[in-house]
Amino acid sequence: MKQAGSVQQSHRHTALGLTDERAVDMYKTMMLARRFDERGQLLQRAGKVNFHISGITQEPSQVAMGFAMDLKHDWFLPYYRDYGFVLSLGMTVKDLMLSVYAKGEDPNSAGRQMPGHFGSKRLRIVTGSSPVTTQVPHATGFALAAKMRNLPSVAIVTFGDGSSNQGDFHEGCNFAGVHQLPVIFVCENNQYAISMSIEKQTRGRICDRALGYGFPGIRVDGNDPLEVYRVVSEARERAVSGQGPTLIEIMTYRVTAHSTSDNDMAYRTKEEVDLHRGKDSLPVYKQYLVEAGLWSEEQETKLQADIRATIDEGNEYAEKAAFQPVEDAFRHVYAEQSGGDQ
Amino acid sequence: MPVIEYIDAIRLAMKEEMERDQDVFVMGEDVGLKGGVFGTTKGLQVQFGEQRALDAPLAESAIAGVAIGAAMAGMRPIAEMQYSDFMFPATNQIISEAAKIRYRSNNDWDCPIVIRAPIGGGVFGGLYHSQCPESVFFGTPGLKIVAPATAYDAKGLLKAAIRDPDPVIFFENKKCYRLISDEVPDEDYIVPIGKANVMREGSDITVIGYSMPLHFAMQAAEELSQEHGIEAHILDLRTIQPLDREGILEAAAKTGKVLIVHEDNKTGGIGGEVAAIIAEELLFDLDAPIRRLCGPDVPAMPINPPGEKHFLLNKEKLKTAMLELARY
């Protein structure tokens, strides 16, 4: 080994305050998300599960986001492609598998919601729905509660580029700007809203919209997870020190179809997709760790084996697990102790 | 017992609940310094500060959505919609989010918000300051909906709504604000959500309704009693979701002749559901077809005085319908 001091100073992650161990953990989480996502697609194609929606190539930035946050105090409002994000917040592959199979033990919804609709109060991951962008004003509300209670909590909410056109995006941002709330708005701009490319959605840069609300808007390369980590960390610092919200636009690309129900070759070319697949930052980040002396092929082999075992185990458990009993299917419309239960 | 106005009952309910619980706060357009366009939140910002009587930007989906987020974080927000006519931009937040948060998370998350919205016409508000949108939200499981007619119920139901663990829409009638006054105790009390109330005992006909039109029914009932010896039994639903089935059936069985009244338009209104409940359980105990007297099926009332008057229910319309039913 080289002597630690001067060499480590030159590493980007060290300069950002990330320990070697955390930098490596980020990689492991990215890879776990990737392999889980691939398995989800296979399971759907094999007819084992009904639906899967993918975040492949978006995971490095999602994981970087999660690692920049305070898991004890912050609130997380993810959108449906955020496997990398929720895995970095403490959700497990077993949890996600239970959701994909829609089983009763699924902590997100007991198998009531489609996969990708995350939620776990224990992990401070806020339940979400399918009409897009409704979570943006909710994040502002969590931030408002933090300010009113004088808590060191920051709310971070993600959404797609299509979502940035919804009224709830503008309303949530504007409210947070007026009241200088501790919230981070993150647009994962993967350049497609199902079939519609970004040109069909907006003429401007999404990050520039922050100017209209009076807070910083920052565009960041999603294929540079350390830069994403830096930008989100700084936004968190601003938020928690009372300097208000930040809008971050993470530039990425959706290499899969919208979901397993979509055929993307109907509206874009394989060449376009391959070009972006070639920019995948997962191997780049791995190479960074190798060059920093933090990762080796032996470790990679072991990681792949471990991940495979974890996914197999989660898959097997979820496949065998029970669905929520139908006698419980209509429970929890109202609080049961209030007498409102029907 | 002091007699107070309906609007003061609403204000006092908020004030007392905000004194009782630090997590209760009210937000909406003009609710702070101005105290609301009707004055419902008057004095709250002076007493509780800017944060707890919070002026929100003019954007109803955010007023609902931010309140929902704060509620999930453990607060007890009261979101004020300036007029119920303006709450439709918040409908997605109310129906897709607030109503489904507990159910979709299998009881992991909850959403204890109150959404206050003034309903009703008779104030020359024209099409968009007069509507009764209850039927838009009625039939959405996960929501509770209340619509008080008296100051006593307004205070007690608003307190119950604020303490309720689930989302409650509180439809207050803007015509009632200063027109209706009744006895309200100084002591803390609640009116339970889901319980109807017999406003008047009678044996000839049953009138079932909620909010402002019940006052016309009460006036008409007094005249029918004096002029024709007809005694009307009047049931105030108070809560329109969940409906008090037992209370409805009991009131219907009492006379066997039922008139349902509301200002919301007839088609798709709450009256249809009330009629169906009675028909399902009591059809053969009835002595007359179930009748409904409601707002007409037009988009909303005009501002010109004859048009508004023609649209609205009043004592005379109630009296005619009640007399006809009694003579059936």
TrEMBL record, chain A:
TM stretches of this protein: none
Domain of life per record: Bacteria
Cofactor(s) needed for function: thiamine diphosphate
Keywords of the record: Oxidoreductase, Thiamine pyrophosphate
One Pfam family linked to the record: E1_dh
InterPro entries: Alpha-ketoacid_DH_E1_comp, DH_E1, THDP-binding
Limits of the Dehydrogenase E1 component domain: 27-325
Catalytic reaction equation(s): N(6)-[(R)-lipoyl]-L-lysyl-[protein] + 3-methyl-2-oxobutanoate + H(+) = N(6)-[(R)-S(8)-2-methylpropanoyldihydrolipoyl]-L-lysyl-[protein] + CO2
Function: The branched-chain alpha-keto dehydrogenase complex catalyzes the overall conversion of alpha-keto acids to acyl-CoA and CO(2). It contains multiple copies of three enzymatic components: branched-chain alpha-keto acid decarboxylase (E1), lipoamide acyltransferase (E2) and lipoamide dehydrogenase (E3).
PANTHER family for the chain: 2-OXOISOVALERATE DEHYDROGENASE SUBUNIT ALPHA, MITOCHONDRIAL
Protein name: 2-oxoisovalerate dehydrogenase subunit alpha
Organism: Cohnella lupini
TrEMBL record, chain B:
Gene3D superfamilies, sorted: 3.40.50.920, 3.40.50.970
Molecular-function GO term, any one: oxidoreductase activity
Keywords: Oxidoreductase, Thiamine pyrophosphate
Co-factor requirement: thiamine diphosphate
Keyword Oxidoreductase carried by entry: yes
Sequence ranges assigned to domain Transketolase-like pyrimidine-binding in this UniProt record: 4-179
InterPro entries xrefs: THDP-binding, Transketo_C/PFOR_II, Transketolase-like_Pyr-bd, Transketolase_C
CDD domains: TPP_PYR_E1-PDHc-beta_like (cd07036)
Organism superkingdom: Bacteria
NCBIfam families, per database record: PRK09212.1
Protein name in UniProt: 2-oxoisovalerate dehydrogenase E1 component beta subunit
